[in-house]
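Entry
Fold in token form

___
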Amino acid sequence: MMAKNEGYLFDPQLRDTFISVIAEGVLVRRYSPDGSLNQIKLWMSDESTLTWLVEGDFSSEESVSLSDIVKIELGKTTDTFRVGAGASAIEELSFSLITHRITLDLEASARMERQALVEGFTMLLRGLGR
């Protein structure tokens, strides 16, 4: 059953499917403010924490609470995408998860993957009342 939340149809089953997929982790490219590019594994370490690490570098693990994400932007809208490796990112595959502390500037491997990730994170944030 789908519930309506401020004009947005919320499907708990779809949300649960996204959570189970993202719990396993997805590989995406992360562009950093210093102009570098890394392949990262991105996953939900629990129902409220998004975690990532540079592929193969277990000491690089970082995380952010979903409640800290204030905005999701499609495309190459942040400063990180204007310099260094970020300038070569593909617009249609790029998106950013923005917090007050950091911005995760990411590039999916396909348009459908970006759409699924953005819609999944949007569902999770709206579940938090956003």
Observations:
- Residues 1-8 have pLDDT under 50 and may be disordered.
